[in-house]
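Milestone M4 deliverable, item 7.
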Amino acid sequence: MTDLRPKIGVGVIVYKEGKILFGKRKNAHGDGTRSFPWWHLEFWEEVFDCAKREVLEETWLTIKNLRIGPYTNDIFDQENKHYITLFIISEYESGILEIKEPEKCDAWEWKWIWEILNNVFLPIQNLIKQWYDIFDLIK
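Output delivered:
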């Protein structure tokens, strides 16, 4: 029997000098859309630990000054998936940006938020619909 409960996603808003880290998703739901580093919260894992681990595993960057952001309720109709996405806001600490999981991401880039408002991953669309100004979140 399939477990029909929502899963927990963790989206990490990483900023550096006013720009935000975006990747282009591949081979998963939201394929081809722009996204923050994002992954599932593992069983028994703390949310901040998940954020640090995923950013490092996906980009080779470390982050600091983590804080809890908003959450979104994300229903992916075509994929028959349902997530609650917890957003974590963080600052770049160190590292050289690399594509560490090329099977999951085509590119990582530092972008101004207005450069990426189209073709974004559903949780980011929902975040924007909830009237969150991402610039207010990173202050």
